[in-house]
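Following up on my earlier thread - several people asked me to post the actual chain instead of describing it. Fair enough. Here it is, all 202 residues.
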Amino acid sequence: MSDKYFTVNIRAYLDKDEPTYIGEESLYDLLSDFSCPKNLDVEYFLLHNAIEFTKKDQSITYLVFDAEDASLVGYFSLTVKPISVRASNISKTMAKKLSCVSILDEETQSYTTAAYLIAQLGKNYSLPKNKRIPGNILLGFALETISSLKYSVGGVMEFLECEDNEFLLSFYTQNHFKPFDTRITASQNNESHTLHQLLKFI
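Reply from S.P.:
Thanks for posting it. Predicted structure:
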């Protein structure tokens, strides 16, 4: 990946045995300048949930910094979740790959398996435009982290969810993710909206 940036697993700031330990209060201060007005759920997660989710092993958040001045440019959160994919929503080639690593429910004609989830991905819009990390580089760090996890523990699939937004859908499909379903969810203001689910083999 680009040597203009580096990533830090926030466990490194929370583990007292690590030389990088700063504690929760200082970590909250570090995160406080993050702003993502284009997706308030992404902003809310980092500022209110990322630390607790990491402590509980629900997901792990990685911060991405500018190598030049150590400014926080973005973050991503990863976890492992079960995924269900209807055979009718994917190609025969993808179905064949899935059949090797998943269980087919004959009744629903859906494949179920575990996969790496890119649960959150966001860039820091509080920075000047020329200092913001390109989306493809931020996504690349998440994919690179998953690849290293695959090397250590296995796994063949990664997936994510995105808003019903043409730009985002185009961005992820250009990065080789394939849409396979949608789901309805509620945002922080309790308004329901559609999320597109996309998957990719590692």
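The radius of gyration is 18 Å. That should answer part of your original question.
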